[in-house]
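Morning, I've got a small favour to ask if you have a moment. I've dropped the whole record in just underneath, so have a look.
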Amino acid sequence: MKPVNQIYLHDPDNNSVGDCWRACIASVLELPIEEVPHFGLLDVREGRREELKFLSKYGYTIYAIYGDGSMGNHPKIEVDENEYYFAIGVSPRDKNVHHQVVCHKGEIVHDPHPDKTNLKSISHFEILLKLTNH
């Protein structure tokens, strides 16, 4: 994992959509952020479809695991100890905005936002799964 910070912060008053989603993917795949599409500019379903198409080019798909929204009460997940995964939840800066961070071994290891305040609560995790026929 090579930490990549987001370029755009969420600022709807200035028509800016944050790109933490693509920064996290760029970090885990160790790509320059410019090589990852800004999925947040699309509606959620289209963004997810484009994300899956993009990840498949690198031999991955994504799997979501949902919890109850609290920081400490979520499903226990076991991934290979070398694997990184994503936590998605409420931004500490704005309760109406979701934010994404990178996790490893049960800990948040990279917040792509400049203030590095992580998450207020977690709604779900997303794990990259290697495609076997790739």
About this structure: The helical segments are 20-29, 44-57. The chain has a mean pLDDT of 87. The chain has two helices and five strands.
